[in-house]
């Protein structure tokens, strides 16, 4: 892996998991030393993160991690819902049934993962990532996959807000299982409808979590 790719991946993970919180300044010297790379590959990584919309130039502070506002969440879901519904339809028509049947079986045990503490929740999110990849492979649409991947960069930050709500994670797992089972049954309309329900619930939860975070920040 190139040094710039290594730096990009490390910074991306730190932004997504909150290690680098919104508003954090990314000084080149400090970050290069922390990641063990020279400043040239670091600059390449920072340039890509800026293109992704995960960092921005801030007057007087240099590059800083962007925040995710309530408006951002609404706009992301306005774009996400139709794309995810179309992806679910295509996966139901084109997907490998055995692949999705295996994923359905694993999602049936999602409760146990979610109840397994931080390690279990991490495993649950890894399972969701495997589902995303399976759908991307099934739909055979480079443009749709590209659009979804761009969205997922930002959505991963929003998902992090739900990690401390096991009940919501369990509900989301059930909603996702319905989508997968519709794909297995080759039922594109049901897959799209179940995706719409899941998106609406996810948006509601994301907004509630974001509002709760804002209240906590004001109090502290």
CATH fold node name of the largest domain:
Four Helix Bundle (Hemerythrin (Met), subunit A)
Structural class call reads: mainly alpha
Mind describing the biggest β-sheet? Answer: 2 strands, antiparallel
Question: What fraction of the residues are assigned to beta strands by DSSP?
Answer: under 5%
Rg, nearest Å: 19 Å
Number of strands: 2
* Shape-level CATH architecture of the largest domain: Up-down Bundle
Explain what the structure shows.
There is one protein chain. The protein has about 220 residues and is mainly α. Helix content is about 75%, strand content about 5%. A two-stranded antiparallel ribbon has the order 1-2. Strand 1 and strand 2 form a beta hairpin. The chain has two domains: about 60 residues, Winged helix-like DNA-binding domain superfamily/Winged helix DNA-binding domain (Arc Repressor Mutant, subunit A, Orthogonal Bundle), CATH 1.10.10; about 150 residues, Four Helix Bundle (Hemerythrin (Met), subunit A) (Up-down Bundle), CATH 1.20.120.530. The termini are far apart. The model has no long low-confidence stretch (mean pLDDT about 90). Helix 4 packs parallel to helix 9.
């Amino acid at each position: 892996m190139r040094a710039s790719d290594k730096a990009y991946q490390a910074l991306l993970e730190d932004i997504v998991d909150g290690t680098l919180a919104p508003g954090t300044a990314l000084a080149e010297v400090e970050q290069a030393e922390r990641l063990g790379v020279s400043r040239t590959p670091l600059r390449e990584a920072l340039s890509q993160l800026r293109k992704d919309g995960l960092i921005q130039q801030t007057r007087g502070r240099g590059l800083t991690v962007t925040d995710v506002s309530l408006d951002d969440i609404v706009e992301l879901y306005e774009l996400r819902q139709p794309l995810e519904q179309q992806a679910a339809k295509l996966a139901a028509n084109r997907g490998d049934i055995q692949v999705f049947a295996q994923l359905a079986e694993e999602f049936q045990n999602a409760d146990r993962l979610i109840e397994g503490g931080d390690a279990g929740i991490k495993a649950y999110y890894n399972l969701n990532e495997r589902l995303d990849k399976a759908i991307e492979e099934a739909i055979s649409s480079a443009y749709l996959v590209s659009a979804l991947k761009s969205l997922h960069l930002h959505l991963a930050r929003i998902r992090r807000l739900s990690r401390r709500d096991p009940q919501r994670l369990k509900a989301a797992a059930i909603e996702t299982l319905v989508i997968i089972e519709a794909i297995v049954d080759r039922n594109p309309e049901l897959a799209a409808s179940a995706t719409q329900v899941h998106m609406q619930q996810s948006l509601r939860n994301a907004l509630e979590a974001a509002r709760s975070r804002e209240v906590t920040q004001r109090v502290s």
